[in-house]
Design brief:
With about 325 residues, this protein is of the alpha+beta class. It folds into 2 domains: about 5-230, Rossmann fold, CATH 3.40.50.300; about 235-320, OB fold (Dihydrolipoamide Acetyltransferase, E2P). Helices cover about 25% and strands about 30% of the residues. The protein has helices at about 45-50, 95-105, 110-120, 135-150, 165-185, 195-200, 220, 230-235, and strands at about 5-15, 15-25, 30-35, 60-65, 65, 80, 155-160, 185-190, 205-210, 210-215, 240-245, 245-250, 255-260, 270-280, 285-290, 295-300, 310-315, 320. It has a 6-stranded mixed β-sheet with strand order 6-7-8-3-9-10, with helices on both faces. Strands 13-17-14-15-16 form a 5-stranded antiparallel β-sheet, with no helix packed on it. The structure holds adenosine-5'-triphosphate (ATP) and magnesium ion. Magnesium ion (MG) binds near residues 43 and 44.
Length: about 325
């Protein structure tokens, strides 16, 4: 099997700034790959190099196994959805979607048929004659998606396609994006800084830090085993503790039990402290416990008030060890 996109030691410098450094990445065919990381970590730069809008300073890009480092964008069979959608305001929805086919000199009948199919796929057939300004944000986003897939790209590149939408629509569109990817079987590369979006959509999650690969793998493998504090923080972990006999660890608050005085502890590491903050959550309480110079977040079903002397129980099998330095990332193409 040939990989749709391979980056081999790709580096991009802008003057003195290294935006992407020595990146090796294999994008698996027919899957959803998410490039994830904080602002400025090199996500857009990576996508633009794959698309051909930007040349690497060093390294190679292979598309379908063939050398493509210097190939111009129009000679790469890629569909791109930009953050701003970049629709043509004076063209109807149908003509916006037809644009890529006209550039490729597709025939009239074929264009009509394929535009119809693409609009159907994104649920916009009834709005084909509208103009972009007569559409909602979510509808414009669908037009951009239809325009990218109508050319049947071998890879669909998406740069934060949902970031202009409000929170509720964003969650809804995620599912639609996934449906379109699954129905067409297109290889998709999505840039996002939203970890929930990546967890929900990605078959392969690629976490970048300062232009370097920090960790990669299937969300179900990465989430329970962040390779560094950076990844753990990014994925929303909040407990960063040094536990006797374990060193630096993180643990989800759900697994930390806060015990009221007199509660008999089952096995695990116990720390003593004072309840600093108690937040009622319906089924249980989230408790911030001051234990020595550390704060531990845990949960309890017992009645605990701020100021109470408590103990926290850290089950050994839920502790995630965090190396001081990021380890070498797992091998590429590691999807389920
Ligand atoms: N054309 C450019 N000229 C100079 N520096 C650039 C250029 N494009 C990007 N950079 C720098 O390269 C780094 C990576 O930028 P990039 O746009 O790839 O980040 P990003 O991960 O997409 O961030 P965001 O989440 O904010 O979109 C940043 O430090 C940025 O300032
Ligand atoms: Mg960006």
């Amino acid at each position: 099997m040939v990989n749709p996109v391979e980056l081999d030691g790709v580096t991009r410098e802008f003057g003195g700034v290294t935006a992407v450094q020595d990146l090796d990445l294999t994008v698996p065919e027919g899957k959803f790959t998410a490039l994830l990381g904080p602002s400025g970590c090199g996500k857009t730069t990576t996508l633009r190099m794959i698309a051909g809008y930007l040349a690497p300073t060093r390294g190679r890009i292979l598309l379908d196994g063939a050398e493509a480092t210097r190939l111009p964008p129009e000679r790469r069979n890629l569909g791109m959805v930009f953050q701003s959608y970049a629709l043509f305001p004076h063209l109807t929805v149908a003509k916006n979607v037809a644009f890529g086919l006209r550039m490729r000199k597709a025939g009239r009948e074929e264009t009509r048929r394929r535009v119809g199919e693409a609009l159907e796929l994104v649920g916009l057939s009834h709005l084909a004659e509208r103009r972009p300004r007569e559409l909602s944000g979510g509808q414009q986003q669908r037009v951009a998606l239809a325009r990218a897939i109508v050319i049947r790209p071998s890879v669909l590149l998406l740069d934060e396609p949902l970031s202009n939408l409000d929170a509720r629509l964003r969650v809804q569109m995620r599912q639609e994006l996934l449906n379109v990817q699954r129905e067409t079987g297109v290889t998709a590369v999505l840039v996002t800084h939203d970890q929930d979006e990546a967890l929900e959509l990605a078959d392969l999650m690629v976490i970048l830090r300062d232009g370097r690969l920090e960790q990669l793998g299937h969300p179900r493998d990465v989430f329970p085993a962040p390779a560094s504090r950076f990844v753990a923080e990014f994925l929303g972990y909040e407990n960063f503790l040094t536990v006797p006999g374990h060193g630096p660890v993180t643990i989800r608050p759900e697994y930390v039990r806060v015990l009221a005085a007199g509660e008999e502890p089952p096995g695990g590491t116990l720390l003593s402290g004072t309840a600093a903050r108690v937040t009622y959550r319906g089924t249980d309480c989230l408790v911030a416990v001051r234990a020595g110079d550390q704060t531990v977040l845990g949960t309890t079903a017992a009645e605990i008030r701020p100021g109470d002397e408590v103990r926290v129980l850290l089950p050994g099998d839920r502790l995630i060890h965090l190396p001081e330095n990021a380890p070498v990332p797992a091998t590429a193409g590691d999807t389920r």
